[in-house]
Request: fold
Amino acid sequence: MGFLDTILMPLQWVVAWILAIFHTLFTTIGMDPAGGWTWVASIAGLTVVVRAVLIPLFVYQIKAQRKMQLIQPDIQRLQAKYKGKKDQFSRQAMAEEQMALFKKHGTNPWASCLPLLVQMPIFLSLYRVIFNMQGIALGNIEPIGGLTQALAHQAEEASIFGVAFSSTFLTSGGLTEGWDIKILTAVMIIAMGLMQFFVQKQMMSKNMSEAAMNNPFMQQQKMLLYIMPIVFAVGGVYFPVGVLVYWVVSNAWTFVQQGIVIRNMPAPGSKAEKELMERRARKGKSPLPGAKPLAMDDPESTDGGVPSGSTGSAGTSGQRQQPVGRARQKKKKKK
Reply:
């Protein structure tokens, strides 16, 4: 057993048990134990369990992003304070004040990366479980969790479109060899990269204000919007089909979950918030839950600059009293 397997063994044990439980569940309802789609469904089940467990972290991510929106005026004032100052002392002071601001409001500009970072050990554990399946099936490696030798043998026999779950884009040597493996893995890698791109694009285009997008941290996020899909595409050639299934399902979950949250709980000042207000206006509801009623000094609630129903300085008539010259005032007094 290698060093990586030793470190990840607890997670591998959990991943193997979840796969075994879902495999048993699907075979109980009549699916083929050695069928490829049975194992696809089992990996999809594993993905759903992992993402459900990560929902609290996703909620934290959304809250952190909302707080980042709210402190944008403070960040802009800080940027104006150090504008044009390029010396090392000023840059360090600005960075320290920014970090103090984030700490005060309990947010972090990198909170959007947390779900991905937490999933990485799970992803590596699934990778190692699939990688070791052949050794378990042959009896060279001890079973992991619920993944017995018989179950590993069934997994090794399983395939989708004639491609085994342990196959990678690089499994076949030449360009003309194993074209079925290359086509399937290439399609899944492209799907994985595109979903990753649209997840980030959805967040930036729908759920961020213009002020937030002009933040230097968000400029770095824009770069990641294009870099991350490329990283996944390059690394994807080394991923087994089973791991690619996990990432495609996981990214699809993220896209749908994020879309629901953005639609119903948009960030202040974002495009999604404007769309929500428009939907509520069409239904005759208040702009947003808890919206303040129309103020008395609002132009729509006044008549000629004086609130309707108010006597003002003209008594009960509600009309503005016209100015009177001194000569006319003296005549009125004499009368």
The two ends are 114 Å apart (CA to CA).
